[in-house]
Amino acid sequence: MLSKIKLAIYYSFFYKLPHSRFIGFTARLRVWYLSKILKIMPYDSRSKVEFNVYVSDAKTLQIGENCRINENVFIQGAIIGNNVMIAPNVVIMNSAHRHDDINLPIIDQGSTEETDPVIEDNVWIARNVIIMHGVTIGEGAIIAAGAVVTKDIPAYAIFGGIPAKFIKSRKL
Question: Rounded to whole angstroms, how far apart are CA atoms 40 and 55?
Answer without folding.
Answer: 10
